[in-house]
Amino acid sequence: MLLELFHAFFVIGCFSFGGGYAILSFLQQEVERRGWMTTERFVDMIAISQSTPGPIAINMATFVGYETGGIPGALVASLAVALPGMMLMTCFALCFFHFYERRGVQAAMKGLRPAVVGLIAAAAWQIGRVAVVNWVAAGITVAALVLIAKWKVSPVWLVIGSAIAGILLF
């Protein structure tokens, strides 16, 4: 089980460019394919990961690892998802100033940006289909979108407000 967790999260860590939210699509597919937890439980883990300190990718790896393999699973999954990024950033830092101004590197970065947006949108769509289960949840979703897009409300306040709304309305 621990080797399976390490392999899955190492692969996810290798191919999840763009930060923690980009990992959600990959992670959801792995969790569903391997039967590690239900989609509803996965969405709950995202909410908890968003609410706790630290990067969402590490938090999700820790929670999924713990769910499937206890404390050893949490440690293995967390290390495995972080290891590719640490290795890549070490190499990248060594070469950054030498290669950054080159056209090919600039072109690759411009190509990666829209792909990351697509990955985040796909994860939002997949998660939204499970999380937005009625008109109340849809209202909370729309309110959060408007508050963050129009008034730049801090995600901290959105999480707290949404939790309070959930307690009061559900």
TrEMBL record:
This is Chromate transporter. The chain crosses the membrane at residues 6-24, 45-66, 72-99, 133-151. It is found in: Cell membrane. InterPro entries: CHR_Transporter, Chromate_transpt. Keywords: Cell membrane, Membrane, Transmembrane, Transmembrane helix. It is a multi-pass membrane protein. Belongs to the chromate ion transporter (CHR) (TC 2.A.51) family. It comes from Pontiella agarivorans.
